[in-house]
Amino acid sequence: MLKIGEYLIIRDFIKHKSLLLMDHEKKNHAKTGIAINNYATIEIAGRTYYLVPTNMFKAIIERNLRIASTKFPKKFGTGDAKDVIEAIYDLEPWFDLERFIETLRTEQFCYAIEVINGKINEKLLRIDLYRDIKANKNGGFDFIGGIFHCYKHFSFEGKPLSTSKEINDIEHPKELLFKIIKTFFLGNITIVDELTSYSEIEINEKEKLRLVFYYEKNTEVFFVKTAHRI
Known about the structure:
Blueprint (H helix, E strand, L loop, with lengths): L3 H21 L15 E5 L2 E7 L1 H17 L9 H11 L5 H9 L3 E8 L2 E2 L3 E5 L3 E4 L5 E4 L1 H5 L4 E2 L2 E2 L12 H14 L1 E4 L4 E7 L5 E9 L4 E9 L1
Parallel strand pairs: 5-13
Antiparallel strand pairs: 1-2, 2-3, 3-4, 3-5, 6-7, 8-9, 10-11, 11-12, 12-13
Helix pairs in contact: 2-3
């Protein structure tokens, strides 16, 4: 349940971090405030986490991606990120596709933060829809970072959720968001280098989920790069 005191602390903390990121990334604007209705809490192993998504992130992860993957299955698993985005765009087209691609790349994210006894754990995770898309050697485009890069390794009702044909069903696209948060905060961490680490949790006796994340040391914010089973 959302507690107003914790909400106010988190709101101010996120505003501060967003302004630091805007300055570091030399952007002209940043989302520094998220509607209170978007705040949600989840409990994992007795610990409380706040999810703070933008409107568009929330709509896509909770609704649009599931519908698009069912309605336009041929747009998924093609090796081209633009096909995936086009499937989502075609549900509710509201301006040209290239502008939509840029909109999703710019400031569409979910922050995840832990609250312990009314105090913030300053280990802040940012889960973008994607950080960028870049051309690949096959003539298509790849998602760079964010949850859409993670979705390459997962599926819903036997249908791919991103560019890869890999089938690993999850109950709902939103489920991956919870898995990412659990792995980041509760998993066993291995440091790869100064900026990159990965964390792992057991899925079952034979498999683990590995989350790879990037640390932006100037702002002390962690960014999701990918997640997959091992």
